[in-house]
Fold:
Amino acid sequence: MQGFLWKGRIKRAAAGALPCILALFLGGCGAVALGNGEQSGVVILSEEDILGQSAADGGSGQLRTIKETAAADAQAESGEELSEEETFLEEGSGYAKENLSPAQQIWYEDIERILGGFQRDAQLSKAGLEAGLTEEDIDPVFQSVLNDHPEIFYVDGYSYMKYYRFGKSSEISAVEFSGQYSMDRESALQRREEIREAADRILSGIGPEAGEYEKVKYVYETLVLETDYELNAPDSQNIYSVFVNHRSVCQGYAKATQYLLNRLGVECALVLGTVNGNEGHAWNLVRIDGSYYYVDTTWGDASYRTEDGAEDLEIQPDISYDYLNVTTAELLRTHRVGENVKVPLCTDNAANYYVREGAYFTEYDKEQAAALFQRMLDGGRQDVTLKCASEECYAEMLDGLIDRQEIFRYLPEAGNSVAYTRNDVQMSLTFWVTNR
Structure:
């Protein structure tokens, strides 16, 4: 909810014209696919599809397929590391991989290599089959690879073929996997260079002495300021949309956040789930100084909060900090975590933005408020935001700062008017000077 204060009177937005901040989120990321990719199809070869026993094999019952040689070649190459020029893979935390079973991690490494090398028709390791893997494991492993590698921006699905040993139609003898690519390799290489140039420029703005909190905050603020939320943006499900086009949706924001933090050495994972009922959404899990927190860069962007077409009476501050390093309890007020990856219970708030910036209130402490406003204004900020630890504290803040208009004590340069937003769900308030 947004409103304006004039000394002696209060004006709030008319009902329906400006719903509360939470309502403005209803546009969401409806375009995001929780699967993170689409299976292009499955080709199952029956006994009729397999070349039968020939006189040459003497009735041995060995698997013989048209693609036998190609599959064998792919398997022979499976242990070889590709050079930087041959692979698109970059270092990451591997969080999704760690959540897979040891057997699934075998095929994870295969699919990671295949997609990173722009390969097709490559055989998955027989060791995976021997460990009990089936075709049902392919999709969760594929999703895990994409979740760990935001730099794989050119994949939009996969296909696979499974082969049976002759006479044993219930026993899979081999699985051949192909990535489904949205562009050719040369186009992907060109886009990779564009992405790297943009990322290098962004990362040049933070010094080597920065701690993990400073790195996460810097990435959050920079991506919000450089990206506009646009539901129909091209390439919106990958990082190219953020770094080059500067227009994206939640999955683009989340993967770009992950990509930059990977480069900065901060553990960061992609989290998929829902918001506002059952609307698909993506955000991040980060680890700062040994503790886990949630970060939702999309919900930090004012352009997302107005995507539904609700026009603000006054331009809001560009950044909301309500979802910068939050606990599980805070996140679950508005988000629901999907079941694709196990996540830890986040309880520490030491690296929460409001706590670190001295803007977290357990009561309406006027000295703390005065110090916060003065520090922010001295630092060149045009807006000041704060958060309350409890409903009781939040009620005190609303009564003191808005109803009794004590905000003018802390913003003496405001003259006779101040604009503000309030997030009743996260119990935060943001104030800024308006010319109205």
In short: The CA atoms of residues 135 and 162 lie 8 Å apart. DSSP finds 16 helices and 17 strands in the chain. Residues 9-28, 30-79 have pLDDT under 50 and may be disordered. The first strand starts at residue 2 and ends at 6.
